[in-house]
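Closing statement on the coenzyme A sub-project.
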Amino acid sequence: MTELSISLLPENPADDAAIERLVARTFGPGRYARTAYRLRENNPHRRDLSFTAYIGTMLVGSVRLTPITIGALPALLLGPLTVEPPFRSHGIGRRLVERALEAAKATLAGEGAARLVLLVGDEPYYGRMGFRRVPPAQITLPGPVDPARVLVCPLDATPLDEVRGPVRKHPAAGLPLQESA
Ligand SMILES: CC(C)(COP(=O)(O)OP(=O)(O)OC[C@H]1O[C@@H](n2cnc3c(N)ncnc32)[C@H](O)[C@@H]1OP(=O)(O)O)[C@@H](O)C(=O)NCCC(=O)NCCS
């Protein structure tokens, strides 16, 4: 198949409407009932760690990272990850995830930096990008979730057995200065 010329760009506020349309088409109204959504509600994502994929002027994919904590560990929630159906299986999803992980790793030296990325998704897909299952009893989410779909990717050498406790919105969620430019 012909190689597509894809640009990965840091998310821009001007992308919001197109991302929302893509996410709505992909996940439908049921997205609001998802456990991951509860963690994102009133908890702005990190625009500086969220990326879009463009082909020419058309937005064809998006990934977002949102600040959370797991027990006392600062972390990031990955999602939604979406790629426009006609452009799937060209590596766009993988590249978006890898780019977001790379950007998150680049923040590690900062105070209070996220130490790992968590998502609720399919291990056969995300396993290729370094995500692993957390042993089920170790962490709890604020709603029902299939434990086999709770996956984490450490950004540093944090061992998985230190990943324990309740998953919550970042404590600064909802405060006016939370969102970065
Ligand atoms: C999941 C998704 C983002 C992948 O995007 P993409 O650009 O097609 O991803 P990639 O090109 O990196 O990888 C595609 C490969 O992963 C496979 N794949 C896609 N979703 C998968 C899943 N849930 N489990 C296992 N494999 C999966 C595809 O079959 C494809 O395999 P191929 O390369 O042998 O054809 C896209 O399919 C999508 O938007 N799906 C709907 C939303 C969704 O499920 N998001 C993830 C949960 S937040």
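Residues 26, 79-83, 88-94, 121-122, 124-125 surround coenzyme A (CB under 6 Å). With this model delivered, the sub-project is considered complete and its resources will be redirected to Aim 3.
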